[in-house]
Design brief:
- The complex is a heterodimer.
- Chain A has 13 helices and 13 strands.
- Chain A is of the alpha+beta class.
- Chain A folds into 2 domains: about 5-50 and about 270-400, no CATH class; about 65-255, no CATH class.
- In chain A, the strands form 2 sheets. In chain A, strands 3-4-11-6-8-7 form a 6-stranded mixed β-barrel. In chain A, strands 9-10 form a two-stranded antiparallel sheet.
- Chain B is of the alpha/beta class.
- Chain B has one domain (about 35-55, about 80-230): Rossmann fold (3-Layer(aba) Sandwich), CATH 3.40.50.
- Chain B is globular.
- The chains are: A alpha+beta, B alpha/beta.
- Chains A and B meet through α1, α10, α11 and α13 of A and α2 of B.
């Protein structure tokens, strides 16, 4: 069969009716574009969650009290952190943290109200990949002897001292006077935590001065962060830590009162929530692609009815039923592929546009492009086939007689 | 080679079954020799359209044999019939049946789209131009049908019928939609084709048009009433 010629004939037929052809493809254009945009939006959401969690530090393992277990928030102790540091093989650093209630801080004439505080051990900057920009962090010895030192978040330093150097200045936190020995680098807001708007204190000082001892054991910590030597060490570190803490807490390792998680675990938990959202979006987009296909079928059926005489004439001139079928099928496929192509362009362009507006992050999923385009082609074949068979079935005598 | 282009023997065409059976053709025998110009006349419902459809390979007879150009086409499949129409037949319709959005040239090229052998584009175009030139439309190649007069449109249709050089031209009321001046133009073209050796079978109900043919076959009630090779019209008074 002269496929090339029949293809050209189909193409000419479509070009002779550009407006209708465009309107017919519009459904497919919107369907394909929305598949790409919606997947890009949800991939962007996932990526930004993953970025935030990864920003906590590389090769990080997070030990927390088990949520929802009575009394568990009092069971994770600073002693646990020391034990992990001594006994677990394959870690380069450890940082225990505790967050006391916010306090007002004063320096000179400036007062800042309800500023978040974090008590950490000396390993904090290294473990959390959060460097000191100016001055230094406190040492393990300084932490042990509850030295009255403080390191400021970049925003706090600017608010209290402006362009002046904060180093060596004294600030009052609640009623305690502390000496500023360092200022952290600017980090911004990650996972809803404003790192620049906090102050960082030795953990032992925090436990002694700022924790209400009635509520908790004075040496309970909120989180212990471990930094593994490498990605490969992570499973071993998790196993050792779990075994060690289970023994120390005298609990069954299968039913612990603490959790040991990697960033990947947390990302996976987050993704499970976004996955449902993403699937919903993909379905909505898929449905619009389906509606686009029905639009093509509808117009093709109208076209077959309108062009009955043309079909009869072509048959009289020697077109086989298969030639007629091919022509109409090709018309439907051209429509859907053209719609798919334009849809890919619109979808990719729209994804960049949404991303550049700044309100949401978009990341184009490479697979979504062949997926959406392929779906458009299948839609064209599927929904083009029925009208094409209707055309091929026409009896030339009847068709020629039709007005 | 047999000199008969068309040999039809004992042809019947029945619509419906048993009691409800209607004989559109009730035993028709007709031969058309190569180079003949035959007019078929007959009143509405006489069966002449059915006969024309079968001769045009658009329909199967219920019974009987139809040998066209040496081949029995009476029981061919749809695809085989399509190929026969493409190679052996050129259709001229009462309502021209040109595709309105295509130029005269593209309309004439249409049959070559379905040729068994793939005609190269340049050759297809050259053949279409030659065909349009033969009907005097060499200056109207790129006009659309609505930019042409009725007579010109029918000439485009004739050019289309000729472009594959078929042995048989079938004209179904070719002047039915034309004024008398254009009718004369069209009938002159058909006569010239006939003089050039073409075989033409034409259905008409106009006696003066039929008079241009060298043979007039009269059909009534599914049978051939008269078959005059003397050029005289034996159907006078039969139609309408």
């Amino acid at each position: 069969m002269k496929f090339r010629k029949i293809f050209r004939s189909a193409w000419e037929g479509l070009m002779l009716n550009k407006v209708r052809s465009f309107l017919t493809t519009l459904g497919v254009i919107i369907g394909v574009a929305s598949v790409i945009v919606m997947l890009a939006v949800s991939a962007g959401a996932e990526a930004s969650i993953a970025d935030q969690i990864n920003a906590l530090g590389a090769n990080l393992i997070i030990v927390s009290p088990m949520r929802g277990v009575p009394g568990a928030s009092r069971t994770l102790l600073l002693e646990d952190a020391y034990a992990i540091e001594e006994q677990v093989v394959g870690i380069t650093g450890i940082s225990a943290e505790q967050n006391p209630a916010p306090q007002n801080i004063r320096a000179g004439g400036v007062t800042l109200e309800a500023i978040a505080m974090v008590g950490t051990t000396a390993g904090f900057p290294d473990v959390r990949d959060y460097a000191v920009a100016e001055g230094r962090y406190f040492t393990a010895d300084e932490d042990d002897c509850k030295a009255k030192l403080v390191v400021l978040g970049a925003g706090i330093a600017a608010d209290l001292f402006g362009a002046e150097s904060a180093l060596g200045q004294t600030i009052t936190v609640g009623t305690t006077k502390l000496t500023v020995i360092g200022v952290m680098e600017a980090k911004g807001i990650v996972s809803d935590v404003d790192y620049d708007g906090r102050i960082y204190l030795p953990l032992n000082l925090v436990l002694q001065k700022f924790m209400p001892t009635t509520m908790m054991r004075a040496d309970a910590v909120r989180t212990i962060y471990l930094k593994a030597e490498s990605q490969e060490q992570i499973p071993s570190v998790i196993a050792q830590t779990t075994a060690l803490l289970a023994e120390r807490h005298d609990v069954d390792a299968a039913k612990p009162d603490f959790t040991v998680q990697t960033q990947q675990d947390i990302i996976a938990t987050q993704e499970a929530t976004t996955a449902a959202f993403r699937d919903l979006l993909a379905w909505v987009a898929g449905v619009s692609l389906l509606v686009g296909g029905i639009g093509i079928m509808n117009i093709m059926l109208v076209s077959v009815t309108e062009r009955t005489r043309e079909i009869g004439l072509r048959q009289a001139l020697g077109a086989r039923p298969s030639n007629v079928l091919t022509q109409f099928l090709i018309e439907a496929i051209i429509l859907s592929l053209a719609g798919g192509l334009v849809g890919v362009i619109v979808g990719v362009g729209g994804s960049y546009l949404f991303g550049s507006l700044g309100t949401m992050r978009t990341e184009i999923v490479p697979l979504s492009i062949p997926l959406a385009f392929g779906a458009a082609a299948i839609v064209g074949i599927f929904f083009g086939y029925y009208p094409a068979t209707q055309a091929a079935k026409l009896d030339p005598i009847e068709a020629l007689r039709r007005e | 080679m047999n000199n008969n282009l068309i040999e039809i023997t004992g042809m019947t065409k029945v619509y419906g079954e048993d009691d409800a059976a209607v004989y559109a053709l009730a035993g028709v025998d007709v031969q058309v020799a190569r180079g003949e110009f035959v007019a078929i006349m007959g009143p509405s419902g006489s069966g002449k359209s059915t006969l024309m459809n079968i001769v045009g390979c658009l329909d199967h007879p219920t019974d009987g044999a139809y040998i066209l150009d040496g081949r029995d086409v009476s029981q061919m499949t749809k695809n085989e019939l399509a190929d026969v129409r493409n190679e052996k037949l050129g259709f001229i319709f009462q309502s021209f049946n040109l595709l309105p959005r295509l130029s005269a040239l593209s309309n004439v090229m249409l049959p070559m789209l379905y040729n068994a052998d793939d005609v190269p584009d340049e050759e297809a175009e050259a053949r279409a131009v030659a065909s349009l030139t033969s009907v005097g439309l060499e200056n109207r190649l790129h006009h659309r049908p609505n930019q042409l007069s009725g007579g010109q449109q029918q000439r485009v249709a004739i050019a289309r019928a000729l472009v594959n050089h078929p042995p048989l031209i079938l004209a179904d009321e070719p002047t039915g939609n034309l004024d008398s001046k254009s009718s004369v133009e069209i009938i002159d073209i058909l006569r010239n084709l006939h003089k050039g050796g073409a075989t033409i079978v034409m259905v008409t109900h106009e006696a003066d048009i039929a008079a241009h043919a060298e043979r007039v076959i009269c059909v009534k009630d599914g049978k051939i009433l008269s078959d005059g090779r003397d050029g005289k019209n034996h159907c006078s008074g039969l139609h309408q």
